[in-house]
Structure formats: structure tokens, C-alpha cells
Fold Integral membrane sensor signal transduction histidine kinase.
Amino acid sequence: MTKQSVSTDCDDGATLWVARTRGPGFALIWLPVLMLSPILTAVLDGAAVTLAIHLAITALYVITILVANRGLSQRAGELCTIGLMALVVIQFIVSPGGQGFLYPLLAIAAATAIRLRAALGIVMGLAISGSFAEGFATMSLSNALQFGFATVMAGASTYLIRCLTGTVDDLRATRRRLAGLAVVEERQRFSRDLHDLLGHTLSAIVVKAEAIRRFAVADSAAAMSHAQEIEDIGRTALADVRQAVAGYREMRFADELARTVDVLEDAGVKVNTMLAPNLDSSVDTLFAWAIREAGTNILRHAHASTCSINISIDETTAVLEITDDGDGVGQTSPGAGLAGLCERAERLGGHVHTRSNSHGFALIVHAPITGEQL
């Protein structure tokens, strides 16, 4: 069964009607079934007192159901139920026999208006007491059992529908909240990816443009080579942005390392690397984002002459450390790039921290590994 078919089955007309009415419809449809015959009998027999009590019970039953399901007051619903029970007692005093239909009515009212933790117990109490009363009045075990079954079914079914409608309301509210959170998370993902992608790409383009300016007169071939690289960077950036928009951005550490080393060396930064074997796919992608973020920060802020990129691995953790000998300027107040990198690391169960002093700046990324190397 597809997701669409499940949604359709759960949102059919009957289910939506129950959800909208929150149960009073189910409770009220039993009123004519239980009260129509006694009222007509009282009219035909000319029993004015009995008729008045039946009409009062009918009116108070409707008020009890509506008060309970409008959420006006739990206390008001319980008081209405107590009043309904008092009227039923008066009815038994006025006319002792043939009042078995009132117990299912009371059970439905109790299951609707009494607080949940007590409602089912009251329903069972009504069923037991009513069964004994009916059994002694008619001296029939069969009548007593049928009476008890009817009372239990009337009250228990109303109780279950009350619980289920509440659960459905909670699930619908949760679904709306999750949908909102999904939208927020997607916006954050897009904003983070776009910042990381364009920040690095624009920094690389600036470095290449400066190289072209230096070589434009003295070495036209080198200038043309850098111009071609700017074109390639632009095409790659365009593809990356399209992938980020589609949500399928996949970065590889080796590719990002090669691009970052190339750009840093063009900017006059010497890069030393000490790398490990291939990593798990998720860790590889995380380290690729880290390389991109670190390279962008070195180009923009560090004014460094050398940079070291080291990866170390033990049985459970891979650590990427990127250090430079710049003026120690890094994320004294974390920006969007470092915040995005921290989020990515936390998703994998890792963490990111930085170290800054007069000797330079360091970015250290820890990530757990499964031990299955690619």
C-alpha cells in the first residue's frame, strides 16, 4: 500500500466527520435509539410525571455531551453527569420497572464527560450495578447479562472513540509541526550549502584574478591559464549550486583538497599534507566541507605563509587538523561557515573545535568511523 493510499484511507468521510465532531455525534446518535420509545410510551399512557422526567433526562444528556465536547469545563461536564444520574434515580423511584435503557445512556454520558482516568471505572460500575438491579427485578440471568453487555459496549465504545479522537488530534498537530520543521531544516541546509559553496568559489576567483593581473604583461600564457581556471571554477560552482538546490550535493575530500591546495598556492601559501587512507563516505564528505571552510578562512583572514593538513585515524575516530601560521584570526565569533560545519559534524556524532593564538589558527574536526574503509 502506498503512502498516498494510506492517507486517503485514514481521511475518508466518516473519519473526518468523527474528527470534526470530536465524538458528540457518536454519543448523540444513541439518544433517539434509547429515549424515543420510552417517551412515546409515556405520551400514550398519559404518564405526565414520567414524560417530564424523560424529557428532562433527554435535555440534560444533550447538555452534558455538548459541554464535555466543547471543552468548556471538565468540572461542568462532571456536574452535568451527576445531575443526570440524580434524574435517573428519581425516575427509578417514580417508576421502578422497565428503566434498563437508562444505564447505557448514563454509561455514554460518563464516558464522554468524566475525566479519562475515572471514566472507564464508572462505566464498569454502572454495568455491574445495573446488571444486578435488572437481574433482581426480572429474576432472569439472561436479562442481567444482556443488560450488562449493552451498558459496557455503550460506555466502552464511547470511551475508546474519545481516546482515539484525542490521539488523532495530537497526531495531526505533530504532523503539522514536523512539516514546519522540515521546511526550516531545508532552508537551513540550502543557506549553509550556498554560503559554503559561494564563499570558497568567490575567494578562489579573487585569487585567480589577482594572478592574472600579475602575469598579464610578463607571462601572457600563465595569465591565460589562470583565466581558463576561472572559467572552470565558475562552471563547477554553477553545477554545485544546482546540486545544492536539488538537495543532492555530494563532496569528495580528495577533490576539495586538490582545489584548495591549488588556490592556496596561487595565493602564495605553502601547503603541507599528511593524509590517511580513504575514509567512510560520510566522514569523507564532512572532511571535504572542512577543507573548503578552512581554505576560505585562510584566504580571507589569516594572511598565512604556510598551512598544514593532517588526518589521523585510530580504531573509532578520524581527526582532521588544519593549521596555519597566520595572525591567529579565525572564528573568534563563529560565522555561518563554521556553524554549518559544526552541524554536519554533530549529525555524525562528531565535533569541531578551534585553536587560535599568536602562532596561527587551527581547525580540528573529530568524526566517528565504522571501521569499514572505502
